[in-house]
């Protein structure tokens, strides 16, 4: 093997001592084969012509191996060229395969549900979703018993066992559908290629096609009753309910001001007197915005003063924002809501009370100066209902239903309403809000019945209508 090259160990040792960096020690037996002296060490290289006729120089071995071993490697490269294989590309391909194999091996560590949840999915949800922490809590609460299992080994029996156990505890099926959807979404994410890894951690989501058991007759009856309750919540507020809400807000305003006067009188003189303020608490303008725009509470919490854009050419202000519920969707679109009349007064009055009303969150925590907790409004809403005599079962979200129902009743086109409240199309509004006016329906049914009446009776019915 020593005869493969004219470079002996002795020649190499002498060259290393005397040569300057970038000098070459060539071989008389293998064309293009040489040793390159570097500033620190050296390298065995081969200069050759590739299959496309391009001259290339490749490092074929490091300086630590003997000349005979490096020569054998050079001869091997030349043999590959004669076989129609570019050895440098072949070497790069092997290196890439090795890297991918190492990446896949590292990714397999995260095949366990718990490992993937903690190391990959948790940062993803917290960094990219406003309410990601809530989704993570749902997954951990429902499926932590599967955290030691590998994701690709999950099956329908695991889901059925979980479902039956939770149903036995009285959990609503609609809640379980939501919880299962959150868990399935996590596995869908695991089946997507992640940044820096060419292959997804999970090749196929094993529960992707699994659905929860069909509703029993009892569950169907319960769901129908629940939907009936929701349908009433989508009705337009009666004048009585509207008056009760207004009364509750007025009494709550006065209550807050009275409490502040009492606090100041009892030694807390550093507190601001609220008597001259339009809104002694953030909840009151928050409530008015919900009433006048139909916005979801989560979107009102996220509003910034920068979302209010004033057009100096037409003297109009527009509220522009992207609903948080669809912010990550590919077809998400901005809502453009004209700010006029009472709504403009609410924003202007609240802005007048703020020291830095031109920047940042419109409603923020006085303690942290950050976004308020997403259910912070409910405590105040409960007090307003109590003070105004509003039925306890009226949800704050009903402001959104009332807003949509009001527009429907006034004949506003469904697509216009959908664009105003952040729906991608009008299907949901058409399915849930387009109900006939009951008084008109009664008249129509009365006329239909009259077809069976005598001519005299029919004339009397028609006159009465």
TrEMBL record:
InterPro entries: DNA_brk_join_enz, Integrase-like_cat_sf, Integrase_catalytic, Integrase_DNA-bd_sf, Integrase_DNA_bind_dom, Integrase_recombinase_N, Tyrosine_recombinase_XerCD. Residues 257-446 form the Tyr recombinase domain. The keyword Transferase does not apply. Belongs to the 'phage' integrase family. SUPFAM superfamilies: DNA breaking-rejoining enzymes. Keywords: DNA integration, DNA recombination, DNA-binding. Gene3D superfamilies: 1.10.150.130, Integrase, DNA-binding domain, Intergrase catalytic core. The keyword Lipoprotein does not apply. This is Tyrosine-type recombinase/integrase.
């Amino acid at each position: 093997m020593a005869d493969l090259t004219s470079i002996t160990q002795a020649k190499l040792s002498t060259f290393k001592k005397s040569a300057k960096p970038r000098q070459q020690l060539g071989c008389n037996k293998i064309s293009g084969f040489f040793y390159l002296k570097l500033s620190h060490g050296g390298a065995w290289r081969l200069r050759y012509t590739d299959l496309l006729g391009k001259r290339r120089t490749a490092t074929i071995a490091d300086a630590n191996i003997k000349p005979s071993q490096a020569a054998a490697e050079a001869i091997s490269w030349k043999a590959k060229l004669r076989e129609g294989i570019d050895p440098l590309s072949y070497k790069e391909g092997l290196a890439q395969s090795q890297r991918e194999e190492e990446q896949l091996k590292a990714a397999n560590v995260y095949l366990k549900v718990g490992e993937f949840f903690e190391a990959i999915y948790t940062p993803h949800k917290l960094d990219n979703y406003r309410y990601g922490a809530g989704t993570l809590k749902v997954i951990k609460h429902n499926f932590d018993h599967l955290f030691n299992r590998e994701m690709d080994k999950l099956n329908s029996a695991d889901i059925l066992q979980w479902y039956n156990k939770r149903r036995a505890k009285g959990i609503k099926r609609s809640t379980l559908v939501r919880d299962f959807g959150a868990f399935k979404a996590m596995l869908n994410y695991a089946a997507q290629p992640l940044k820096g890894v060419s292959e997804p951690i999970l090749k196929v989501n094993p529960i992707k096609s699994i659905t929860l058991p069909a509703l029993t007759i009892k569950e169907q009856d319960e769901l129908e009753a629940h939907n009936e309750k929701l349908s009433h919540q989508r009705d337009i507020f009666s004048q009585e309910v509207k008056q009760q809400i207004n009364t509750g807000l007025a009494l709550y305003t006065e209550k807050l001001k009275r409490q502040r006067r009492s606090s100041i009188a009892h030694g807390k003189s550093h507190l601001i007197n609220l008597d001259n303020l339009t809104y002694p608490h953030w909840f009151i303008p928050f409530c008015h915005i919900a009433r006048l725009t139909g916005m979801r509470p989560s979107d009102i919490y996220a509003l910034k003063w920068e979302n209010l854009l004033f057009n100096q050419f037409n003297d109009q202000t527009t509220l522009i924002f992207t609903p948080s519920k669809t912010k990550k969707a590919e077809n998400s679109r901005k809502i453009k809501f004209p700010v006029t009349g009472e709504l403009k007064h609410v924003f202007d009055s609240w802005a007048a009370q703020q020291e830095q009303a031109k920047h940042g969150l419109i409603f923020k925590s006085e303690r942290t100066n950050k976004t308020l907790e997403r259910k912070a409004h409910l405590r105040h809403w409960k007090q307003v209902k109590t003070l105004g005599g509003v039925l306890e079962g009226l949800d704050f979200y009903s402001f959104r239903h009332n807003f949509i129902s009001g527009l429907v009743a006034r004949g506003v086109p469904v697509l216009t309403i959908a664009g105003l409240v952040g729906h991608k199309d009008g299907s949901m509004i058409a399915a849930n809000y387009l109900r006939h006016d009951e008084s008109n329906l009664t008249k129509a049914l009365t006329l239909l019945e009259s077809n069976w009446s005598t001519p005299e009776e029919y004339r009397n019915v028609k006159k009465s209508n």
